[in-house]
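Q: I'm writing a short explainer about Dehydrogenase (Flavoprotein) for a general audience and would like to include a description of its predicted shape. Could you first generate the structure from this sequence?
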Amino acid sequence: MRKDLCIVGAGPAGLLTALHVKERDITLIEEHQKIGIPKHCAGLVGLETKKIIEKELSPRLIDHEYNEIEFNILGVGKHAFHFKEPVVFHVKRPLLEWKLFDKVSSQIEFLSKVKAKPGETPTEIHSKNYEIKCQDVVASDGVLSLFRERYFKAKPCYLIGFQGLFETNYIIDKRIIVTYINHNDLLFHWIIPFDENLVLSGYMSRKTLPKSINEKLLALNGLKPKGVAEFFGGLIPCSHPLKIPVFANHLFFFGDSIPLVKPYTGGGLYYIFKLAPELARTLDKNDPRGYVEAYLSQSYFKLKAEHFMTKFFSRTRYWLPVPILEFIEKIGLFRRDDYDKHYKLLFKTLPFMPFLPSYLFWLRKRLA
Ligand SMILES: Cc1cc2nc3c(=O)[nH]c(=O)nc-3n(C[C@H](O)[C@H](O)[C@H](O)COP(=O)(O)OP(=O)(O)OC[C@H]3O[C@@H](n4cnc5c(N)ncnc54)[C@H](O)[C@@H]3O)c2cc1C
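A: Of course. Here's the predicted structure. Afterward I'll give you a sentence or two in plain language.
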């Protein structure tokens, strides 16, 4: 079978590519029968991503907004950042994927329940029932990308993200809480309130932990879960981003297969929304340079910087320089759009780093 443009994976990355490409015949290949499976994401985005979602898709996809972020380093202290206007937004997933699919479904060929595997060459795809020869392939097949493994010989590195929707006692409903733990396999925990009695409580860890851990983590924040409505989760990539996200000029990587995930929070939607129009333009023009240039200028070095910072802090058993951020907020440098652009926090905290060794020494003594 011969095809023009094959997109493997109908997650946000694959669907957004399909939305923006105008001049090609698209075949979208998805291993599940339905879009949005498995549901895994917490759905937090910053101001810029929220604006793009509202403009390109629908304002109704954003269902909650938050004015406050509380950072809590267990055993050390916490600090809440207050903003006059909302800084973090919750996007409904998998409604995002359904909306995107709705927009593209009449213009594409959709092959569901087809697990695509790399073929003999970068533009060939194998599956149980199909042998497809494509002009171009977009590998938006997520964190366990078979295409990344085959062509970059890279085993996927990932962390576990698992969360539950709990009924609880009262919580400030405009504040999200991030608790850095970094103890054994548990790295950090988040609480996202949906109303005064309903919260999404999740954690990032190195391995799967018992379900009851979420309840213990809620208790650390003074919350008593009364019941759980739903459990869900998935894998958060922690590999280094590909230097060049294109192989042999015709195989394009996009989304978690690169991965475009900010290691501070596991947020993957920001760069997907930013880069999708560039990738689409490149595919329409049949020239990979535009996408590579946009990727290098908009995301690669920022993602690398965040990787470096996250590794450094996690090795020293310490994640965010909360006191430094606190100081930065006091002098007005922590801005509303920094949630989408974590690398900016890195650059803003760097001038204060000379004080860090003595702080880390003090911190270690407190945590010991
Ligand atoms: C617990 C958790 C919390 C998160 N929270 C946030 C958050 O708050 N904010 C944020 O911005 N991001 C968050 N993320 C990250 C975000 O969900 C991902 O970055 C985003 O979904 C990546 O989109 P994608 O399309 O690249 O991959 P995916 O969403 O994984 O989609 C890949 C698609 O490809 C399909 N597929 C895979 N392999 C094949 C194959 N061989 N053949 C055919 N189809 C295939 C899959 O079925 C899937 O539909 C979170 C992730 C997790 C796990």
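A: For your explainer, you could say: Residues 8-14, 29-32, 40-45, 115-116, 140-142, 146, 161, 163, 202, 233-236, 255-256, 261, 266-269, 272 surround flavin-adenine dinucleotide (CB under 6 Å).
Q: Perfect, that's easy to follow.
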